[in-house]
């Protein structure tokens, strides 16, 4: 039987996240969006009540939550303010390669750092000329004695300006395409420069920066996983974080849907609330279906992981559908508001701007379709278990 009945712990967690989103995130969401304010205080509060670093295993100071629980939290983050939510969730993206590929000492040092204090880490994959095409990266890591020396520039880095350490992907064999990429954990020092902070269309409370590494030296032991196996580590990381991104997209869509429902019952035209007009009812019905279907795909993609089953196809379905739906639902919410929807005094235009990035980051909707097409055409077994050798995170029985 397919069963998504939440446990009492999961329900409590969702309530905690919802209350936090209501009281702390929504309170400032529209103001922070306007000013592009960095949510330092909210990050501290979220960390204090255990809503950050949710998948960090208990032995490194984290709560070691399952992926479905993570999605419950991220949906509430998306509902509260996805700009602030992205700032809160980005540690998970940077930490996953460390959990998957770091040595015991590296995990203790870097995951422990995030558990001990409200500090941040960033995932550095994208480059100006290597977005969807990860293999095209130019950043290099060169082995010198017992050190690696990193050189290169990474762009669109969430929390880049505020991070204490970075997960950096670099070429260790320039001629080997995706098989010449390695992953490293890189602490911030004076050779790490923040070259640019982006001024964005949406999610304006999140920090997005260009980070460059200039002869940055790290100990040999900061290599994550095996040399030249960094591309796979990146893909395995995205399999684990795309369900959360999909959940955040569901949260944005749900927020827009709720605003549209409320407004359609208040706003009168032709003598009745616009909710009485079938044209509006059909839009509301489609929004409701998209939220519901997006959530089911998302939960499915997370629960596969929680059961030790490969979720590459499922998380691309979820991320693609939830992101595209968030864009459609928020655009329709603006339509339900009519001319008022276009005005900043009303809540939905922010959601429409925020939704756009969901179709872009952590793999565009086109890349998700590429993955889906490859998986279905190659006919890979969608229920393939994840081999124990690459499944170091705790998997519930
Ligand atoms: N798990 C494990 N291994 C995987 C894998 C997975 N999910 N997917 C692919 N691989 C392996 C393959 O088995 C193959 O292995 P071999 O070398 O042994 O053959 C290898 O990786 C290459 O796979 P493909 O041939 O499928 O790779 P491709 O080049 O055709 O496609 C891609 C790759 C899907 C386009 C990939 O490059 C991709 O996902 N690109 C999008 C990148 C992305 O999401 N960027 C977002 C950056 S993060 C961000 O946005 C956050 C932020 O802070 C803003």
Ranges with pLDDT <50 over ≥5 residues? none
Q: State the name of the first-level CATH class of the largest domain.
A: Mainly Alpha
**Distance between the ends:** 17 Å
Ligand catalogue: acetoacetyl-coenzyme A
Helix count equals 9
Secondary structural class:
alpha+beta
- Please tell me the overall pLDDT: 95
Report the principal-axis shape. Answer: globular
Order of helices and strands: HHHHEEEEEEEEHEEHHHH
Estimate what percentage of residues fall within beta strands.
Answer: 5-15%
Major beta sheet, strand line-up:
1-4-5-8
CATH homologous superfamily of the largest domain, by name? Butyryl-CoA Dehydrogenase, subunit A, domain 3
How many runs of DSSP E, i.e. beta strands? 10
Number of domains: 3
Radius of gyration: 21 Å
Helix content: 40-55%
CATH fold-type name of the largest domain: Butyryl-CoA Dehydrogenase, subunit A, domain 3
* Main sheet overview: 4 strands, mixed
CATH architecture of the largest domain: Up-down Bundle
Please name the defining characteristics of this protein.
397 residues, four-stranded antiparallel sheet, globular, Butyryl-CoA Dehydrogenase, subunit A, domain 2, four-stranded mixed sheet, 9 helices, alpha+beta, Butyryl-Coa Dehydrogenase, subunit A, domain 1, Butyryl-CoA Dehydrogenase, subunit A, domain 3, binds acetoacetyl-coenzyme A, 3 domains
């Amino acid at each position: 039987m397919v069963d998504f009945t939440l446990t009492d712990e999961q329900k409590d967690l969702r309530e905690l996240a919802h209350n936090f989103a209501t009281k702390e995130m929504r309170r400032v969401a529209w103001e922070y969006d306007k000013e592009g304010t960095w949510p330092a205080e909210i990050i501290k509060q979220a960390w204090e009540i255990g809503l950050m670093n949710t998948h960090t295993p208990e032995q490194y100071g984290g709560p070691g939550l399952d992926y479905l629980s993570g999605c419950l939290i991220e949906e509430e983050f998306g509902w509260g303010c996805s700009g602030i939510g992205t700032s809160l969730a980005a540690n998970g993206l940077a930490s996953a390669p460390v959990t998957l590929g770091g040595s015991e000492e590296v995990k203790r040092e870097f995951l422990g750092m995030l558990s001990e204090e409200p500090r941040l880490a960033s995932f550095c994959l994208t480059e100006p000329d290597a977005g969807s095409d990860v293999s095209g990266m130019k950043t290099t890591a060169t082995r010198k004695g017992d050190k690696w020396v990193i050189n290169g520039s990474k762009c669109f880095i969430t929390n880049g300006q505020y991070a204490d350490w970075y997960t950096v992907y670099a070429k260790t064999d320039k001629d080997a395409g995706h098989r010449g990429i390695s992953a490293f954990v890189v602490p911030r020092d004076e050779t790490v420069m923040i070259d640019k902070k982006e001024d964005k269309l949406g999610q304006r409370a999140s920090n997005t920066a260009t980070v460059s590494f200039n002869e940055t030296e790290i100990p040999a032991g900061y290599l994550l996983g095996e040399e030249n196996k960094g591309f796979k580590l990146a893909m395995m990381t995205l399999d684990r974080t795309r369900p959360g991104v999909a959940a955040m997209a569901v949260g944005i869509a749900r927020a827009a849907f709720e605003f549209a429902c409320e407004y359609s019952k208040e706003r009168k035209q032709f003598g009745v609330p616009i909710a009485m007009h079938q044209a509006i009812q059909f839009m509301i019905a489609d929004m409701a279906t998209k939220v519901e279907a997006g959530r089911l795909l998302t939960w499915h993609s997370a629960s596969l992981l929680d059961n030790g089953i490969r979720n590459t196809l499922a998380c691309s379905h979820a991320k693609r559908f939830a992101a595209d739906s968030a864009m459609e639902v928020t655009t329709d919410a603006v339509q339900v508001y009519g001319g008022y929807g276009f005005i900043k005094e009303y809540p939905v235009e922010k959601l429409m701007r925020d939704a756009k990035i969901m179709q872009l980051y952590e793999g565009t909707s086109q890349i998700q379709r590429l993955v889906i097409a490859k998986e279905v055409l190659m006919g890979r077994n969608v229920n393939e278990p994840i081999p124990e050798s690459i499944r170091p995170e705790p998997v519930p029985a």
